[in-house]
Amino acid sequence: MERLQKVLAHAGVASRRQSEQLIASGHVKVNGQVVTELGVKVGLHDEIAVDNIPIAAEEPIYILLNKPRGVVSTANDEKGRKTVLDCIEGVSQRIYPVGRLDYDTSGLLLLTNDGQLANELTHPKYGVEKDYVAKVEGIPSNDDMKALRQGVVVEGKQTAPAKAKLRSSDKEKKTAIVSLTLHEGRNHQVKNMLAAVGHPVVKLTREKYAFLTLAGVQSGDFRRLNPKEVQELKRIVAPKK
Questions:
Q1: Which residue has the higher pLDDT, 218 or 2?
Q2: Is 131 a catalytic residue?
Q3: Which of 102, 131, 170, 221 does the annotation list as catalytic?
Q4: What is the mean pLDDT of the chain?
Q5: What highest taxon heads this organism's lineage (predicted)?
Q6: What CATH number should be reported for the domain holding residue 155?
């Protein structure tokens, strides 16, 4: 027997917190009866429906995608643009991205139907690290790099300290390659931080998510995470004893 909100999350309906809200607001039925109590447990033979639509207890799946530029990080796009789901073939489960990468940003993106893990990985309290590499206009000074490491003010709010490194510079073209490691997840954060120190981003890639890298995965390709990798992700966000 499992708690109802956990079953909904594992079925990809929503995160566990969102599933709790669905239950409390009367959107969920178990065996034809509306359930609003969060402590209810259900088994394999119970029929569960959300807004009168039955859910299927899908096998959890975890995918690492090397997202190309020019692809949106949503399940569907009202403008008809290519989505990250268009890059995934041979997967019958309903999956969705863990967080997002901008339309013109490439790199490592996770997709899953495990709503609980997706919610935990994106929650700021767990501080999951993400590594980015940016090509920027101009060549950052030592003071610029120090500011990035200490945190800069973006939209009136100080960013958390970050790891920052100047990888290379091209004095002739007046550009540089900068790496940043963040554990926050604000919208356009890397671009906004680099713009704040006077170096707008020309090109941006996410190279690493926690311990996962793009090794062996070409742009536009994907692979399934193995059980050991999934367990390590869950360990990262597990409550500390």
A1: 218
A2: no
A3: 102
A4: 91
A5: Bacteria
A6: 3.30.70.1560
